Amino acid sequence: MTTLTHRARRAEVGRNLDKKPDSDEDVAADRDLNDDDPDDSKDIRLTLMEEVLLLGLKDKEGYTSFWNDCISSGLRGGILIELALRGRIRLEPLSMRKKRLLERKVLLKSDAPTGDVLLDETLRHIKATESAETVQTWIELLTGETWNPFKLQYQLRNVRERIAKALVEKGILTTEKQNFLLFDMTTHPVSNASEKQRLVKKLQESMLERWVNDPHRMDHRTLALLVLAHSSDVLENVFASLADDKYDVAMNRTKDLLDMDPEVEAAKARGTEMIWAVLAAFNKS
Fold first, then answer.
1. DSSP 171
2. pTM
3. Are 105 and 97 contacting, i.e. CB atoms less than 8 angstroms apart?
4. What whole-number distance in Å separates Cα of residue 10 and Cα of residue 52?
């Protein structure tokens, strides 16, 4: 859906496994969501979708680039990864018949509520499907990009606005009305700049000072966010503030990371299968 942007553009251009919903595994997954990342704020917990939108928003204007037609599907991919990291969904096991990531179906692992409206709505959709669907199909269904009129009910509506409101509730964004000639638009300027700076700094350092040259040694949420930032065409916003030499290093390392074969990398670490499956889906689109 998108490729790594260049510096010249910087300015603008199933099967239900019937697992008990209150299992200790699910509770632990939610409680320890970011505990492996020492840089994460202990006061504010953000979902992957919230982080992607925050990276895509213009700080003062409070809206994403009008030229960005990738962020909507990127946010849906973030929902799938977030659910997988929280132990709610997984890919069906490998088999002789279905080996490739994009052929394997998304299975419900637990329908325990997450407390996030978008995540729980998606869980209900996945649980309600008569036959399991693939990662790529779910991204299409959740964005409403399907030719099947009987599956339009799976579309998640007003996703950006709902995520923005969640960020307002967490004190990171504020709400304003702006006039655009013929209409008024609700915008969400950044009110807590330090939280966005923390997020940008974490990603910059992961590609520079803390570079490990191995995606399987990276924090899973950091890896997921890099994949989603690329897929949502907001990666340029992460590295734009770097000096030229550091910018080139960070972008080249990120390109090398995203150019890896998702099939090969997913087979190396079971916990990152959904991340690589989402990347594979966007690479194919």
1. T
2. 0.85
3. no
4. 17
Q: Comparing C-alpha atoms, which of 164, 161, 130 is closest to residue 148?
A: 130
Distance of CA 39 to the CA centre of its chain: 19
For residues 134 and 231, what is the distance between their CA atoms, to the nearest angstrom? Answer: 18
End-to-end, the C-alpha distance of the chain in Å comes to 5
Q: How confident is the model at residue 32 (pLDDT cuts 50, 70, 90)?
A: very low
Could you give the C-alpha distances from 221 to 103, 160, 164, 195, 229, in angstroms and in order? 24, 20, 20, 16, 12
Give SS3 for 108: strand
- Please state, in angstroms and as integers, the Cα–Cα distance from residue 165 to each residue in 103, 162, 175, 202, 284, following that order: 35, 5, 8, 24, 32
Q: Average model confidence (pLDDT) for the chain?
A: 86
The neighbour count for residue 212, using CB atoms within 10 Å, is: 10
Residue identified by tokens 């013929």 is 182
Both tokens assigned to 141: 């269904």
DSSP 157: P
